[in-house]
Design brief:
globular; 209 residues; 15% strand; alpha/beta; 6 helices
């Protein structure tokens, strides 16, 4: 019987090196966030979750605590045009949103004297309390420059420039909002934070503020 030639045996080739999985690519680095942060000093008159009445101004010792240390490279000079951040909030919640923004600024190392808060509706309780001692005493707190200063849009034109200006669109007329945003934009050295209705704010900002 004739022999059938043996078919050559096909050996399965060894697998080569595996391709680098897609997951091997370096993922985009997320934006840095401050942390872990040291415990921030309490806000003026805000021990715990409750807001006291009347508000108490932060002392200069607290201000020194909140200032960042001299270590590390010197920060670059602030740009001529401030960065704008928008925090959506209703007129009823704008003041609370502004307070939260101020808390985060202080926790991240901003000195209290770097921050000016402008309201368009009801004045901040701190401003109401300080004005009860008279106009001169109120503006003396501003001139001292060692604490967060709260001003109504109607009188904020008298306030000097600060690194950060926070605007709470917590009511008031359209003119008050336009005045507050225009003034805040000219007073903010590095950062302008606006708390309010995004549509309303964008319409004002788009009008050339």
């Amino acid at each position: 019987m004739p022999l059938i030639p043996e078919e050559p045996q096909i050996h399965e080739s060894a697998q080569g090196p595996r391709a680098t999985p897609a997951s091997g690519r370096t993922a985009p680095t997320p934006r840095p966030v401050p942390g872990p942060r040291p415990a921030a000093p309490p806000r003026p008159g805000r021990p715990g979750p409750l807001r006291p009445a009347p508000p108490v101004q932060r002392t200069s010792r607290d201000a020194a605590t909140a200032k960042p240390g001299p270590s590390g490279p010197t920060a670059p000079a602030a740009a001529a045009t401030p960065q704008i951040q928008l925090i959506p909030a209703s007129p009823e919640g704008a003041l609370d949103a502004a307070e939260e923004a101020v808390d985060l600024l202080l926790e991240s190392g901003r000195a209290p004297g770097d921050v000016l808060v402008i309201t368009t509706g009801e004045p901040h309780p701190w401003a109401t309390h300080e004005l009860s001692f008279g106009d001169a005493a109120y503006w003396a707190q501003h001139d001292a420059g060692d604490d967060v200063f709260y001003a109504d849009a109607a009188v904020a034109e008298r306030a000097s420039s600060r690194s950060v200006v926070v605007v709470a669109i917590n009511g008031g007329s359209e003119d008050a909002a336009v005045t507050a945003l225009s003034l805040a934009h000219s007073r903010a050295g590095a950062l302008l934070i606006v708390c309010g209705d995004p549509q309303r704010i964008n319409s004002v900002l788009g009008a050339g503020v």
